[in-house]
Amino acid sequence: MSLPEPLEKLVALFEKFPGIGEKSARRMAFFVLHQSQTYAQELAAALVDLRSRLAPCSACGNMTDTDPCSLCRDSMRDRKTLCVVETAEDLISIEQAGIYFGLYFVLGGRVSPLDGEELSVERLDALLSRVKSLSAEEVIVATNPRVEGDLTYYSVLDALKDFEGKITRLSYGLPVGGSIGFADRVTLHAALESRREASKNGNPQKGR
Ligand SMILES: [Zn+2]
Predict the structure, then answer these.
(1) In which residue ranges of the chain is CATH 3.40.1360.10 found?
(2) How many angstroms separate the alpha carbon of residue 159 from the centre of ligand 1?
């Protein structure tokens, strides 16, 4: 049986969401159908606003409704440290963890030969200019712990080959609360590689 056309259309649109299959899309569409007219109007307006009011920050690439974004404008942040991430979503995850107080740079992509993805030359040039204009002292490359993240990391390293400051990469390890018995070989290998040296007074020190 085919659905009424407006329902069919919404289901098809919801199905494009990451991780949403046909059944979930149908549930979402029926959910909207059962809400008030105001809810549907707010939802539609929020979708239009999202695309019309947000744009990448010209300095860091974060999605923002002001340019430069609030992070780039914040004078309390450490402007000598730049954290390079693949996407604006990664930026938000790090920011919400409340553990980092420097600035960011969003690559807006990654290197993945299998998917035919490369970092754009313009974006890598923009990274280099950003590093120079800030006179950054450290660039933290926070690419994802997988093959594409490794390739992206090397691409960033290459783009910053003339940078004289420190370049670091997030270390990988066992997830907190996880167990060695359940960790896969790659995770165990990475955890072993990024081990830290124990100091005599019990405080961990950087191992490598
Ligand atoms: Zn910004």
Answers:
(1) 63-170
(2) 20
